[in-house]
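To illustrate the input format used throughout this study, we show a single complete record. The first block contains the structure-token representation of the backbone; no residue identities are included at this stage. The design step must infer an amino acid for every position from geometry alone.
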């Protein structure tokens, strides 16, 4: 009866004979329950996908952190600084760090991830779907999976870039950044800087000479995928360091990085920072 086209509207007599009207005590509640079940199924499928992605990220970070720590011990060098990522709770992920444990309510998420040859890991999503055989509405779309994995890549490469900064490793920094990197940061005093020479000064005279521990926490990373070969990440960066008097300090900055993939490799092409300087080690 609410159809815009008058020719397609039903009459009042036809409406009174409709089950929703003549059997409203039984049909309406049954349909409402069915819609509620379908809604819960879709929500559960999204929650499973996020849980699987989170599990993969945690296992990958734990593996890479342990590997780098072993390499440092074998070289007899100074302990490598850490980088922690804490996700926004509003995105459906309560929080994750390199050393936390994640528990999920679904038994499917307890399956061990598959370890690939390059040290990364992926969840056993295909075998889990074969065993449980869920309905078509519960299966995640391939595009959502690829987008989530690409966001994970951006977060991981951002961690590696910050680790290179904390370690004062300019060679590793240049391999992750584009030679024509543009940056807008407090050190540039409100100017847009292009190239690596501006950052090289801080690496050679400050970061590479620092022997005190540094810990960086990335809060609420938000990744926006722009096509197949571009992405943007925004996050809050907390840097814990030891000042000249030996007292622990913490600085905060809001950062945005634009990434572009060339020849299968992600490169940082633009960097924007507001707040405290990114290298507060004076």
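Output of the design step:
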């Amino acid at each position: 009866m609410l159809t815009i086209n008058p020719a397609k509207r039903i009459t009042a007599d036809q409406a009174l004979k409709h089950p929703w009207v003549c059997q409203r005590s039984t049909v309406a509640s049954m349909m409402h329950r069915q819609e509620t079940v379908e809604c819960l199924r879709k929500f559960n499928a999204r929650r499973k996908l996020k849980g699987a992605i989170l599990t993969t990220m945690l296992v990958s970070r734990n593996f890479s952190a342990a590997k780098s720590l072993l390499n440092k011990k074998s070289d007899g060098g100074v302990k490598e600084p850490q980088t922690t990522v804490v996700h926004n709770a509003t995105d459906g992920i309560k929080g994750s760090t390199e050393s936390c444990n994640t528990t999920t309510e679904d038994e499917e998420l307890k399956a061990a991830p598959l370890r690939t040859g390059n040290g990364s890991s992926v969840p056993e999503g295909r075998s889990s779907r074969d065993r449980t055989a869920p309905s078509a509405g519960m299966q995640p779309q391939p595009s959502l999976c690829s987008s989530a994995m690409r966001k994970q890549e951006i977060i991981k490469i951002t961690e590696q870039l910050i680790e290179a900064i904390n370690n004062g490793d300019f060679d590793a920094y240049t391999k992750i950044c584009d030679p024509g990197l543009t940056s807008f940061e407090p050190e540039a005093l409100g100017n847009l800087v292009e190239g690596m020479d501006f950052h090289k000064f801080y690496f050679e005279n400050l970061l590479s000479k620092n022997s005190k521990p540094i810990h960086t926490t990335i809060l609420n990373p938000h990744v926006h995928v722009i096509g197949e070969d571009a992405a943007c990440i925004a996050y809050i960066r907390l840097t814990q360091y030891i000042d000249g008097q030996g007292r622990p300090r913490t600085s905060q900055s809001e950062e945005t990085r634009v990434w572009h993939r060339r020849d299968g490799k992600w490169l940082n092409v633009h960097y924007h920072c507001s707040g405290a300087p990114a290298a507060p080690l004076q």
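Structural context for interpreting the output: Helices lie at 12-16, 19-22, 27-75, 125-132, 142-167, 170-176, 197-207. The two ends are 74 Å apart (CA to CA).
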